């Protein structure tokens, strides 16, 4: 007779889950603290210019950070309790945070010199001060948007952490219903779908649409249609239905093509002007040399990366016998 198999050996990571759970809770508190800081900074900036504050400009951030605060606190509690769903969602957020951070650093390297080319009052900064500000900002971005999420990923992707969570939480969680790479797209589509109905409020219903700027009811309808499609796609992806993959690929592709066509003939500043941005803010954006060409290039790169990722997860949607 064969000898009974011994259970797999793993290193207990309960202490690490406790520490990282506390860190995530603190990150949630930090996100919540950013809301009054953003409001205070916006009000002080408006007083400095002598004009009333335009709260609509900062409303996306004011809504986003409380959402992130709830998410991090929820994940922190789940990590402390060694829940397997907390590990899975922490990995998803960590990867999204890291990718956004890398993109932000690349954008900063591209636009940073223009951002720090002048100071308040329009006087150019001395070269030495400009270099110090650029390096300091780059280091801060590197710590908070690359090192921090990378540390989160390295911890939660450990097989020992996974084994610890599965031992403490033996029953399958909702995150086990589909592969983690697919779950990531499903969750972010859900977030995007819930965000779409707010877009008309934040941006005056302005929507780039194949060479024109839709506004009013037409723009609002496009946002609402996207919300419905992405809600259905998020559910379908979670259920591993191919229709969800196709809806995601087609809508993302059409949005990239639409933006490229629109900003090849329309100045992007016209879009921001239609969205209600003040002339002072538009002038600041022009000083940073922000253009429709840059917007299109970033959109095409992001769309290509998204398409590549969708191709990567397509194998999960192949029917038996077609692989």
Describe this structure in words.
The chain is mainly α. It folds into two domains: 167 residues; 146 residues, no CATH class. It contains twelve helices and two strands. It has a two-stranded antiparallel sheet with strand order 1-2. Strand 1 and strand 2 form a beta hairpin. Helix 3 runs antiparallel to helix 4 and helix 3 crosses helix 6. The radius of gyration is 23 Å and the shape is globular.
Topology:
Layout: H1 14-49, H2 59-80, H3 84-115, H4 127-156, H5 159-168, H6 180-195, H7 199-203, E1 207-209, E2 212-214, H8 216-238, H9 242-263, H10 268-274, H11 279-287, H12 292-313
Characterize this entry briefly.
This protein is mainly alpha-helical.
Mean pLDDT: 86
Gyration radius, to the nearest Å?
Answer: 23 Å
**Count of separate DSSP helical elements:** 12
Order of neighbouring strands in the sheet with most strands? 1-2
Please report the total strand number as a whole number: 2
The main pleated sheet reads as:
2 strands, antiparallel
The assigned structural class equals mainly alpha
Number of domains: 2
Low-confidence stretches: none
Strand content: under 5%
Determine the N-to-C terminus distance: 38 Å
Shape: globular
Jot down its keywords.
12 helices, globular, 2 domains, 2% strand, mainly alpha, 323 residues, 72% helix
């Amino acid at each position: 007779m064969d000898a009974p198999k011994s259970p797999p050996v793993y290193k207990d990571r309960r202490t690490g889950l406790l520490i990282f759970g506390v860190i995530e809770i603190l990150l949630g508190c930090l996100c919540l603290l950013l809301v009054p800081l953003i409001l205070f900074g916006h009000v002080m900036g408006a007083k400095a210019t002598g004009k009333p504050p335009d709260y609509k400009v900062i409303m996306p951030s004011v809504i986003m950070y409380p959402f992130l605060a709830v998410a991090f606190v929820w994940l922190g509690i789940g990590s402390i309790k060694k829940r397997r769903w907390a590990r899975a969602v922490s990995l998803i957020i960590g990867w999204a945070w890291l990718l956004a951070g890398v993109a932000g650093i690349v954008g900063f390297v591209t636009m940073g010199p223009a951002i720090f080319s002048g100071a308040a009052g329009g006087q150019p900064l001395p070269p030495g001060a400009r270099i110090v500000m650029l390096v300091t900002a780059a280091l801060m971005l590197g710590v908070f948007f690359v090192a921090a999420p990378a540390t989160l990923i390295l911890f939660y992707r450990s097989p020992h952490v996974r084994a610890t969570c599965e031992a403490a939480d033996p029953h399958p969680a909702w995150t086990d219903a589909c592969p983690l790479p697919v779950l990531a797209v499903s969750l972010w589509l859900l977030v995007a779908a819930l965000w779409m109905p707010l877009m008309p409020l934040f941006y005056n219903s302005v929507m780039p649409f194949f060479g024109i700027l839709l506004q009013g009811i037409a723009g609002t309808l496009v946002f609402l249609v996207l919300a419905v499609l992405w809600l259905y796609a998020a559910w379908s992806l979670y259920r591993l239905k191919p229709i969800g993959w196709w809806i995601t690929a087609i809508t993302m592709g059409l949005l990239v093509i639409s933006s490229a066509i629109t900003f090849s003939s329309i100045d992007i500043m016209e879009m921001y002007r239609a969205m209600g941005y003040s002339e002072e803010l538009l002038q600041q954006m022009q000083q940073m040399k922000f253009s429709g060409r840059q917007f299109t290039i970033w959109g095409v790169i992001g769309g290509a990366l998204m398409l590549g990722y969708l191709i990567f997860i397509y194998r999960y949607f192949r029917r038996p016998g077609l692989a």
